Amino acid sequence: MARLELDDVRKVFTDDDGSDIVAVDDVSVDIADGEFLVLVGPSGCGKSTTLRMIAGLESVSGGDIRLGGRSIVNKKPQNRDIAMVFQSYALYPHMTTRQNMSFGLEESTDLSDEEIAERVENAADLLSIPELLDRKPGELSGGQQQRVALGRAIVREPEVFLMDEPLSNLDAKLRSQMRTELQRIQEDLDTTTVYVTHDQTEAMTMGDRIAVLDGGELQQAGTPLECYHRPANRFVAGFIGEPSMNFFDMDVEGDRLVGDRFEYALTDEQATAVANAGTVTLGIRPEDIAVTVGSEATADNEFPTVVDVVEPMGNENAVYLGFEADPTNPFVATVGGMRQLDADERVVARFPADAIHLFDGATGEALHNRALDEGAEVEPRV
Amino acid sequence: MRDILSSTRTRLRRALRGGDSDDDAVTDDGRVATDGGTAAGGAAGAAGTGGLLDRLDERIGEDFTESAVFWLPPFLLMGLFVYGAIAWNFVISLTDYQGFVGPDYSDLDFEMYVRAANDAGVIEATVNTFLLVVSFTAVALAFGLVLAILVDRDIRFENTFRTIYLLPMSLSFVVTAQFWLWMYNFNNGVVNILLGTVGIGPINWIGNSQIVLWAVVFALVWQFSGYTMVVYLAGLRAIPREHFEAARVDGASTLKMYWRVIVPQLKGSTISAAIVLMVFALKAFDFLYSLVSGYRPPNGTDILATKMVREAYSVNNWAYASAIAIILFLMALSIIGPYLYYQYSKGEL
Q1: Which segments constitute the ABC transporter domain (chain A) (predicted)?
Q2: Residue A377 forms part of a structural domain
Q3: How many CB atoms lie within 10 A of CB B284?
Q4: Are residues A210 and A273 part of one domain?
Q5: Strands ordered across the beta sheet of A256-258
């Protein structure tokens, strides 16, 4: 187990016509010993490339990767003491589960056959798959194959686990089960883990910290709640959270924001934060929007709206609201699952001042983040 | 294929069960009527006139007789000209047919097989055939595998290499034989000239009965390893990249990765390539024939095929040649049979 440091790691692919494509652009992250870091971002953001560079499956174009203080950039994958779980599991189809799990130990260590057998059986017990040891991957279900792939990594007892979207081939029910189990196993083993996913539920629930990537650049690295409540920029704010944060482009006019469809009154503190920006993006999470029925929009920051579509989820309803004046481009608010709202109903939406985020209109940098109750946990849990 | 067979089987069984399964048959016909629309006629016929076709329909099922137009002609042609010929050949091998008088079918025995078992020439030819088949197949597979692995490593001009390696396959055996005859020429063949520059030789490749078989194997390997390469390349491409990567992350060296993870997954490619190569090796007659333009191949390369043709057309030992042909056929069958069974047991036949 060791600390894994990524120092200005860069990956440039050269296209056939000689042009360069920057897949990973100077990413720096420190992953503490035993930490669970989730790399998250949309497709093509460079998260898998980053993981593959740590594994040694891609060469590094610039920067350094250090494991336990020593650079591993020039080491071959087989000498890096890492174990990887692939999205497709990549189980060797001609070997039984037992052989699949022993393979890495046979190749990378000089343990005796008995020791290898013991480790394999311990790992199989940990994953509750001892009865699958003599079956071949073709005879296993997707979930079972996933466990075997995990077991193959666990028996190695490596310095670092690398996981490339390991749960994305499972159905939703199994995925949430395995998510919990994976977390439990990682906590038991206390092995440094880098986990790549595009699924932000996995990112929020599993990681000690998450690193959000977009376009090859690191947008923010922090605890899940930090990224949720204190996004560094508009991209992180929009990427983390489901349904996504609502964004409105506004012009700054003193202590008011003026948009196409509504005006918003800022507090003094907020007005100071946006004083130097010409345009800002106002962001508000769907669950922060207060929806009231049957009253008039009287106070500041209350807006008359019309319900466009209601998506019932059981525990909550996602309500798409259009401004009464201009009902195109509705925004989304979530209300309790017991609230009855119907399409075309007229409701009042209030954007509470302490819940809004403000981002620079040009750069997307966060200028102001929402207020948090005292003691709200955004610091690392470790 | 299997589905058709099993449905035919159930139909047969139903037909054989007879009267008490009539209800069953009617519902079955009713179901057919919805797609085919001909069931009513069939059912009426079965109950009524009872002509030959109707009775066949009743016994085997309509699809069987209706589709006969398509499968019967090739079935008959194949049966007559392939299996009929084999059977006739076998019968001839039981006679004492030789010279210009026709065969006498009244006196059938296995005399020719006894004679073959005691004929040093046949035994030598069998050994040579066996050596040729085994060594050629093994070397061509190994060489093709190495080529495929090298070409698979994302090299530049991959398609060009693939074409270059595959090209010899497109040549006829006759061309290859003539070509290698010149290459192996004792005085001015390329092989001896090249070896001469490093101080070896000259070697009498064709004349030396100890090495001529291996010279032939080498020429055949040259011609067929490109084919093996293409088969293996397709097999390699079907293996997900992650298997290579997983093996590397698991700590396997390149050699171990191929040996333990990749090559075992090429079992299917190996089997199908091996079958083709073996069959070609058994047919090496044309290569040897064109090497010397005659029935007597170079000393040390006599295989069953050349021996058979020589016995038949040089000395008119028709029955004896037929017996050798049957031996050769059984050898080929012993290769193909297990393969067909393997395919069948995997449900691919």
Answers
A1: 4-240
A2: no
A3: 26
A4: no
A5: A263-265, A256-258, A246-253, A279-284, A357-360, A366-368
Q: What is the CATH number of the domain that holds A214?
A: 3.40.50.300
Asked if pLDDT for residue A128 goes beyond 50, the answer is yes
Task: Note the pLDDT tens digit of each residue in A66-120.
Answer: 998 899 999 988 888 899 999 998 999 999 999 999 999 998 888 899 999 999 9
Among A234, A254, A282, identify where a domain stops.
A234
List, in order, residues 6 or more apart from A299 with CB less than 8 Å away.
A350
Mean pLDDT of chain B, nearest integer:
81
Q: Are residues A121 and A209 in the same domain?
A: yes
A12/A149 same-domain check: yes
Q: Is the peptide bond before A42 cis (omega within 30 degrees of 0)?
A: no
Q: Using the beta-carbon criterion (under 8 Å), do B242 and A88 form an inter-chain contact?
A: yes
Are A142 and A192 within one domain? yes
Q: Is the dihedral of CA B311, B316, B322, B323 positive or negative?
A: negative
Same domain as A229, residue A147: yes
Query: A88 in contact with B at a CB cutoff of 8 Å?
Result: yes
Residue A123 lies in a domain: yes
Are β-strands A82-85 and A263-265 bridged in parallel, bridged antiparallel, or unpaired? unpaired
Q: Which ipTM did the prediction report?
A: 0.83
Beta strands A20-31; A263-265: pairing state: unpaired
A373 inside domain: no
CATH number, domain of A326, equals: 2.40.50.140
Give CA–CA dist A293/A297, Å, rounded: 10
Domain range holding A189? 4-234
B261 to A76: CB separation less than 8 angstroms, yes or no = no
User: What pLDDT digit, counting tens, does each position of B30-81 carry?
Assistant: 444 344 444 444 444 444 455 776 777 777 777 777 788 888 999 999 999 9
Please report whether residue A380 resides in a domain: no
DSSP class of residue A354 equals G
Pair B288, B128: CB distance under 8 Å: no
Is the distance from CB of A364 to CB of A288 less than 8 angstroms? no
**According to DSSP H, which parts of A207-354 are helical?**
224-229, 234-239, 268-273
Report the distance separating Cα A359 and Cα A273, nearest Å: 10
Q: How far apart, in Å, do the first and last CA atoms of chain A sit?
A: 16
Q: In chain A, which residue's Cα lies nearest the Cα of B265?
A: A94
Whether A225 and A264 share a structural domain: no
Domains (ranges, CATH) in chain B? 2-66 (no CATH), 117-345 (1.10.3720.10)
Closest partner residue to B249 (CB to CB) among A77, A87, A89 is A77
Domain count, chain A: 2
Q: Which of A302, A300, A270 is nearest to A289 (CA)?
A: A302
